[in-house]
Amino acid sequence: MLSAIGVNSLEDLFAHLPEEVRLRRSLEIEPGKSEYEIIEYFRARGAENASDYASFLGAGVYHHYRPVLVDTVVSRGEFLTSYTPYQAEISQGTLTTIFEFQTMICQLTGMEVANASMYDGSSAVPEAAMMAVRLTGRDRVLVSRTVHPEYREVLRTYALHQGMPVAEFGYDRESGALDFDDLERSLDGDTAAVIIQSPNFFGIVEETRRAAEIAHSKGALLIFIFTEAVSLGLLKPPRDADIVAGELQSFAIPPSYGGPFAGIIATKEKNIRQMPGRIVGETKDTHGNRAFCLTLATREQHIRREKATSNICTNQALIALMATVFMTVYGKEGLRELAEQNLAKAYYLARQLPMRFSAPFFNEFVVSTNGRSPDEINQALLEKKIIGGLPLKRFYPELEDAMLLCATEMNRREDMDTVANVLVAQEAYAK
Amino acid sequence: MYPANFRYTKEHEWVRAENDIAAIGITFHAQKELGDIVYVDLPKPGASLEKGKALGSVESVKAVSDVYAPVSGEVVEVNDALTTTPEKLNEDPHGEGWLVKIKLSAPDEIKQLLSAEDYQSYVGAE
C-alpha cells in the first residue's frame, strides 16, 4: 500500500510533523481483555454507583419510575437503529410515533402545535427566544432569575453572536415567585419575549396568566419553560403563553450522566412557520388512507441551509419515543395521579422543615439551613445512604444557607423522616 | 406576457412605478418555477427596504425563496389578501399577486432594472 501511494515507509507519512510534537514512546495502552474480563470490569465500576441510595436531588433532573414497557418498545430494531426519516414517507411507523408525540405534547401544554422534539430543555429555550425575535421583529429578551440557571447560561451562549441582548429580572425574596414590579420595570418596547419557568427553579408554581398579561401589554410574547414535566399532569396547562419550551427527562428518560434528553417546543398555530425543527403532519395517501408526512420541511436546514429556522436542532426521535411510551402507559388519569403523589410526598417532607419561601410549590422546595452549611448536611445524609439537595449558593449568592430539595413518588416515608431528622437535628446542634 | 410598463430583475421580481410609489411583485416565470405557493411572508408597513436585500419570502410546496427588494424605499402598503389567498401569486402574479407598495427613496434605481423585452429574452421562451 505504501508503494501504491508513493512513499517508502510509514515514517514518510509523518515527515511534515515537527519533531517536538511527535510522541517517541508507546501509547501505554493496556493489552486487550477478554469479553468476560470486560463484563467484570464494568460490573465493578457499576457497583461504585450510589444506585441503592435514596435521592432528594432534583434541580432539572428528576428521579421517577420508568415503566418496563419503555425499554421493550425503544429497544426494537425498527426504532433503535433508524435515523430521523429523510425519506419520510417510507417510515410510516416512525412518523406515526412522532405524530402521537406531538399530539400528546399539545394536550399536555394546551398549545395548538408541537414540533417533533428538540435536543433538550436547555437548548429549546434559546430556540424559543429566537423564534420570538423573528415573530416580533424585536431583538431583546427578558428572562426571570428563577429560570434554571444552566438554561439561562445556554441562552446567553446562543445570544452572544445573535445580536440578541438578554436581560434578567428578579424574584420576590419572601415568596420565591416572580417579582412582577421588577418585570414591569424591566419590560420595554424592544422586548421580544419574557421568559418564565413554572414550577420555577425553586419549585414554585408561577402566576403564568399575570406574567402573560404584563408581557402582552408591551407587545412582547410570553415563553413558558418547564423542567419537571410531571407537574403538567396536575397544573393548569400554560395556555396563556405564546411559546412553551421544556424538558421531558421526567418521562422515563434515564439521567445517564446528563443526557441525551429530549426537549419540546409548542406554540399557537399562527406561529408555526417560525417554529424550529421538524413537524409530522397527517395526510391521506393516493388510496385515501390515513398517512403521515413531514410538513413545513421547506424551512429546515437540509433544504434552506443557513436560512433555516434553526441550524442547531434535531428530532430527538428515540429519546422522545421513551416519553411517548411513558405518556401512553400513564395516560391522562395516571399522570394526574403520579403528579398528586409527588405533591403529597413533597408536602409531607416540607411540613417538617424550615421553608425559605412562602409561595405554593410542586415537588421541589427551598429549605433554610439556618447558618449551617448545606454541604455538611449533605455529607451527613450521604452517610445514611441518602443523596441530599442542591446547595443554592453556587447559582444564587444570596441563598448561601439554603438548599433545594425534591421529593417524588420514588421517595419512601422513612427516608423523608431521616432527611427531616438530619436537617432539624443539625439545626438544633447549631443552637 | 410581461407588461411593457414594468421593470424587472434577474432575481425575477417586477416593479411598477407611478411617480414616487412603486408596487413590487414576483414574475410569472418565478411563480411557475416555484409551483403552488402556500405562504407569503411580507414586511410590515413602515419598514425600510434596501435594494438587493431580502424583503420577505415566498413558500411553495417545494421551497422557501427570498424575495429581494429591486429598489429602495419605505413600505407604505402590504398586500394582506395574500395571507389568506397565497394562490393569487400563481393566478395573477403581475396583478392581484402584488406583494408590497413602497415610497421610493432613490427613484433613479429603476433605470438600472431590465425592460420587459430584456427580461423576456433573459428567461427565454415559455
The sequence of SSEs of chain B as H and E is EEEHEEEEEHHEH
Please tally the β strands of chain A and state the result: 14
Computed structural class of chain B? alpha+beta
CATH level 1 name of the largest domain in chain A: Alpha Beta
- The name of the CATH topology of chain B is OB fold (Dihydrolipoamide Acetyltransferase, E2P)
How much is the average pLDDT of chain A? 93
Q: Fraction of residues of chain A in helices?
A: 25-40%
Read across the widest sheet of chain A, the strand sequence of neighbours is 2-8-7-6-5-3-4
Biggest β-sheet description of chain B? 6 strands, antiparallel
Can you characterise this structure?
- The complex is a heterodimer of chains A (431) and B (126).
- With 431 residues, chain A is an alpha/beta fold.
- Chain A has two domains: 54-66 and 331-430, Aspartate Aminotransferase, domain 1; 68-326, Type I PLP-dependent aspartate aminotransferase-like (Major domain) (Aspartate Aminotransferase, domain 2, 3-Layer(aba) Sandwich), CATH 3.40.640.10.
- Helix content of chain A is 36%, strand content 14%.
- Chain A is built from 13 helices and 14 strands.
- In chain A, helix 7 (149-159) links the parallel strand 3 (140-144) and strand 4 (166-169).
- The mean pLDDT of chain A is 93.
- Chain B is of the alpha+beta class and 126 residues long.
- Chain B has one domain (7-110): RNA polymerase II/Efflux pump adaptor protein, barrel-sandwich hybrid domain (OB fold (Dihydrolipoamide Acetyltransferase, E2P), Beta Barrel).
- In chain B, strands 1-2-3-9-8-5 form a six-stranded antiparallel beta sheet. In chain B, strands 4-6-7 form a three-stranded antiparallel beta sheet, with no helix packed on it.
- In chain B, a hairpin with a 3-residue loop joins strand 6 and strand 7 (64-68).
- The model of chain B has no long low-confidence stretch (mean pLDDT 93).
- At the A-B interface, loops of A face loops of B.
